[in-house]
Amino acid sequence: MTSAVKSQKFSILFDWIDQGGDGQLTRDDLRSMAGLFTGLAADGDDANVTAMRDAFEEMWRLLVKHGDTDGDGQVSRQEFIAVMEANITSPQHFESAVLAIADALVKALDTDGDGVLNRDEYVRMYTSLGIPQEHSGEAFTRLDRDGDGTISHAEFRTAITEFYLSADVDAPGNWLIGPFGPSA
């Protein structure tokens, strides 16, 4: 059974992915999200663009295979929340459907090649992915666990993992795509 915290996060995630705004996830929604993510890569960064597109295709494949319970080729909010808990976040799928996107994204965003995301790179990501910029400073501060003014690849992976897997309402990773919790 999905915890209330995970259900809330998956519902927020559903709204973010539902690019058509129709209350149903489709392959086009996932492709639109892939386009937002790949748009962050520099020209000629084919490896990261391909990795992100492939990971979004894998996520769609898993959503339809395990979540489209009524066979209509779409995934409703209820179906999405259930499949996220049961399949996408399971150990056999989490790496290929979620962390693969995060890994390629960090590599693409690290425009100065220093192995970390600085505040400007992170804010650029937030804005380009359609998340209100006013949330980026707070999110950055929460995700910069060691307080060094950057988010390392490991810190970003930790945030992704917390967002998808943690039932702790106070986990910093919950802020990955904006405010979360009772104080949000």
TrEMBL record:
GO molecular function terms noted in the UniProt entry: calcium ion binding
Organism the protein comes from: Streptomyces tsukubensis
Keywords for the protein's UniProt record, in alphabetical order: Calcium, Repeat
Domain EF-hand: 55-90, 131-166
Family annotation (InterPro entries): Centrin_CML-like, EF-hand-dom_pair, EF_Hand_1_Ca_BS, EF_hand_dom
Protein name: Calcium-binding protein
Domain of life: Bacteria
PANTHER family: CALCIUM BINDING PROTEIN (PTHR23050)
Keyword Ubl conjugation (UniProt): no
Species lineage: Bacteria, Bacillati, Actinomycetota, Actinomycetes, Kitasatosporales
PROSITE patterns cross-referenced by the UniProt entry: EF_HAND_1, EF_HAND_2
